[in-house]
Amino acid sequence: MIPTVNVLYIRGVVTALARFAPLLVEHTGWRYRLVANGCTPDEVALLQHIAATSDRLTVHDLHAPEVLPHGTALCRLADTFTGEPFFAFMDSDIAVTGDITATLGPALETHEAVFTGTPIWALPHDLILTDAHTEVCGPHHYSGDGLLLGNSYMAIYHRAAFDAVARHCEATVDKYTRAGLDGLDPGFRAFLTEHHLVRKDYTPPKILTLGFAYTGRPTTAIDCPDLHHIGGFSLATYQQQVTDGTTRATPAAAAEILGFTDARDHMDRKLAVCQRVTRSFAAIDATGQPCREITLPGQVEHRVRLLEELYATHAPVVARPLNKVQQP
At 243, phi and psi to the nearest 5? Predict the structure, then answer.
């Protein structure tokens, strides 16, 4: 049994990020479902064109008139594809340069959920949730006492375990607020309190993943050297759409997607990477050369340059089909 991984694309990122999709089937033997979340018809057509290049790529359109919050999109996928042996998903701003499944596959033999995809800007201390944090956000992989929180960067759950934990804990893969904890199983709520994990907000899939710890199911997080995650490209794109007024999102939807308020020390590093990458990708599109006005530290600079090279060399994946789609 091999997973089918849902790769989520929001409106405005497909032309940039879908060029990385062929790398997934080039380097691994898994299947990938390219998921359109609020994408335009041209973007869906481009995903379909790319998927036609491999029998291990498919497309699923959520048919959302506007971008759905990430947790809502994950819940829809979980409710739609119930018969698969795994429930798996990953961000679309990930590029792979080797067989990541050589690491992830063996881990799935001994664990019921496996996580990877730490962003290139993250430092080790970003991964630990401390008492100072009121929000349990993306890079928080572990609680202060070592419980695995999981992440939405790339996650693979054994479906039977996913469903059993969801039932036992009365939890979903969605985002949670403190008020939302009232709907959880009372024993699970007590577990969260005992471990000092009652906070203001939780990104997906933190609450559900903590249910694996509560029910004693083994989970793990692994770094794959051949996985390169920008970490925030889609969110930065959505933020710009809200700022420019080019999205029809309701204030409530925009607040749910953008509404984390903790002053997190990783944000400057995350923003610097996203600004460098978005400017550089735009420069490659316009001139064929990257923009390197922003220089990043050491290994981060090396990995961004690798992403720039991949972006440039895989331009034909998206440029010609998109031109064809746009013809009257």
Answer: -60, -40
Alpha-carbon gap, residue 163 to 187, rounded angstroms: 18
How many separate domains does the chain show?
Answer: 1
- With CA atoms as reference, report the closest residue to 68 among 175, 165, 140: 175
Question: Can you give the C-alpha Rg of the chain in angstroms?
Answer: 19
The pLDDT of residue 326 is: 44
Tell me, yes or no, whether 256 lies in a domain. Answer: no
- Per the CB < 8 A criterion, the answer to whether 178 and 126 are in contact is no
Domain of 114, CATH number, reads 3.90.550
Using CA atoms, how far apart are residues 275 and 264, in angstroms rounded to an integer?
A: 18
61 strand-pairing partners: 36
**Triad 25, 51, 328: Cα angle to 5°:** 150
Return the axis-axis angle of helices 267-287 and 233-244, rounded to nearest 10°. Answer: 80
Residue 154 three-state SS: strand
Please tell me the pTM assigned to this model: 0.92
Give per-residue pLDDT as tens, 47-80: 999 999 999 999 999 999 999 999 999 999 999 9
Asked whether the CA dihedral 289, 290, 292, 294 is positive or negative, the reply is positive
